[in-house]
Design a protein that fits this description.
Tscrpt_reg_Rrf2; WH-like_DNA-bd_sf
């Protein structure tokens, strides 16, 4: 099971916003784009979706940009991916299988989906930030 590019970019953008969250300073799209390698136009669309989902807010003006609306430890990855991918809508779209084999495959996909959702529900945005910071410390040790 893979994260879509859309979800991956959304997570990268939210990690960048999380790093600035404690300062209370908004971060501009061009800065996130440059740091994370996300195309500006695509990032604008993702942030608009995340704003509608209640994860970020925009601030206008010379010192404008985007901010998280909640603490990073209060945002689960399941919340984010569900917002971006529309998990609830996709779950309702599943057709009932026409054959026994189809039912077996459908049951397997339900189990895979539940396992993935369980992992995403346990992990928060803060966990990703903490993992990033730990990895950055390890990388710094190689240069000493």
């Amino acid at each position: 099971m893979e994260l879509s590019c859309k979800s991956e970019y959304a997570l990268l953008a939210l990690i960048a916003l999380s790093l600035h969250h404690a300062k209370g300073e908004p971060i501009r799209i061009c800065q996130i784009s440059a740091e994370q390698g996300i195309p500006d136009r695509y990032l604008e669309q993702l942030l608009a979706t995340l704003r509608r989902g209640g994860f970020v807010k925009s601030q206008r003006g010379a010192k404008g940009g985007y901010l998280l609306t909640r603490e990073p430890w209060k945002i689960t990855l399941l919340d984010i991916v569900s917002c971006i991918e529309g998990f609830e809508a996709k779950a309702k779209e599943l057709k009932s299988p026409q054959t026994v084999e189809g039912a077996v495959v459908c049951d397997l996909w339900k189990e895979v989906r539940q396992a993935a959702e369980s992992v995403l529900e346990k992990c928060t945005l803060q966990d990703l930030v903490d993992n990033r910071n730990a990895r950055q410390q390890i990388d710094l040790m190689y240069y000493i």
